[in-house]
Write a structure and sequence with these properties.
Blueprint (H helix, E strand, L loop, with lengths): L2 E9 L2 E7 L9 H8 L8 E5 L6 E8 L4 E2 L3 H15 L3 E5 L4 E8 L2 E7 L19 E5 L2 E10 L3 E6 L8 H9 L9 E9 L2 E8 L3 E3 L3 H13 L6 E6 L2 E7 L5 E6 L4 E6 L1
């Protein structure tokens, strides 16, 4: 059996196991990821592998706790950027996922800003299984209609519903049904969003492949974009989760910037 040193971090309770394989090749099977991700084991929402890079630009590979690979993780990217910045004594890091480049900047004590890139709005890019207006989706789940759903890809697919009370909907029940709806060929993340005012939104999130989560960075981005495009908020907004908030700013070219806290780094050893 091989002994592996890894790092545990979280962003607002959204937690990650980070494995640095810049020096050693480390691969885990889907079954092993599921085993480690269980809350009766190490427990995490996502596992992230860092690979060797150059010029402070590092490829990362992300898997949900169900073993499925994903293309983006905002909170996880902030944690990885902080870990690498601390290791390399730099405040600026670039991360390369399988579909976009993310610029990260450590801006204060345990505070990291990400430039997430531009959102994608076409039904092919999200993707959706049929030609339909992504900004006005109606789904019937458990004999109840959810209307006005806004679909967007911010590195991964999301649908956002604006509701009066984001916690009155049982996401443990309806979340997996929306996630796996046939409209979403790659499944989707699900957010119930409650507008507080022009600068504040409270959310409740079902994360694709991870389930009900304490926080989700890309869901914060998707919610801010959906609300801004619907003229419900300004271009800079705080997205509130149970354990804190993420600041999301959308610039004039639609680039998304996310700023928020990360935890300290905890070292974990396990065997494969």
């Amino acid at each position: 059996m091989a002994k592996i040193t890894a790092y545990k971090m979280d962003g607002l309770g959204n937690d990650f196991l980070i494995i640095d394989r810049r020096k050693n090749s480390i691969n885990l099977t889907k079954e092993k990821i599921i085993e480690l991700g269980s809350r009766s084991n190490i427990g995490f929402d996502q596992i992230i592998f860092i690979d060797k890079g150059k010029d402070n630009c590092f490829p990362i590979t992300i898997f949900n706790s169900d073993g499925g690979e994903v293309s983006a993780c905002g909170n996880g990217s902030r944690c990885v950027a902080y870990l690498l910045g601390k290791n390399l004594n730099t405040k600026e890091i670039k991360l390369k996922t399988n579909n976009r480049m993310i610029n990260a900047k450590i801006i204060g004590n345990l505070q990291v800003e990400l430039e997430m890139g531009k959102p994608l709005f076409s039904f092919k890019d999200i993707p959706l299984s049929k030609t339909i207006n992504p900004a006005d989706i109606t789904l019937e789940i458990n004999n109840k209609k959810f209307t006005g759903g806004f679909c967007v890809n911010v590195g991964n697919p999301h649908i956002v519903f604006f509701v009066k009370n984001c916690f009155e909907h049982d996401l443990k029940t309806i979340g997996p049904k929306i996630e796996n709806h046939n409209l979403f060929p790659e499944k989707t993340n699900v957010t119930m969003a409650q507008i507080i005012d022009g600068n504040n939104i409270t959310v409740n999130v079902w994360e694709r492949g991870a389930g009900l989560t304490k926080a989700c960075g890309t869901a914060a981005c998707a919610t801010a974009v959906a609300a801004f495009k619907n003229k419900l908020v300004y271009n800079e907004v705080d997205i509130k989760f149970k354990e804190g908030f993420l600041n999301i700013k959308i610039d004039k070219t639609d680039n998304i910037f996310m700023t928020g806290p990360v935890s300290e780094v905890k070292t974990i050893n396990f065997e494969t």
